[in-house]
Amino acid sequence: MNRTVALGLGVVVLAGAAALTFGWGASAPARTVLMPSDPDVVALGQTIYSENCASCHGMSLEGQPNWRSPGPDGRFPAPPHDETGHTWHHDGDTLFRLTKYGTGALIGDPDYESNMPVYESVLTDDEIIAVLSYIKSTWPADMRARHDEMENRQ
Asked: What is the pTM of this model?
């Protein structure tokens, strides 16, 4: 690889890292704190989830079939948010930013095509946190504890 290409790739990687760290999300909470034990927050989140998320992710958070494989359009189906999915592998900040700004922003690729809508102008920060709190409230206790441990390491 020639030096110019290597330098260019380095700049792209650094720019992507900077965008992930500083670029978008200035209005996001400093650290997203989910509240899966707050019944009012969870109830609000369940209502918002059913109105905005369940059509793709399922009323029981089960996701769409074959969610790990791209469909004919090259896009991945909606993953489950229950214990069978990978949602609990991601910290609250990542989940918040994915929901608010979309997959493309999260991975630093504005051209990334996803069926996941961007909720920045649809839901408030508190509503996004309520939805994520509802989702977390449905996980088994051991999974919630592992997620809490991950959050505490942040």
From this structure: 0.79
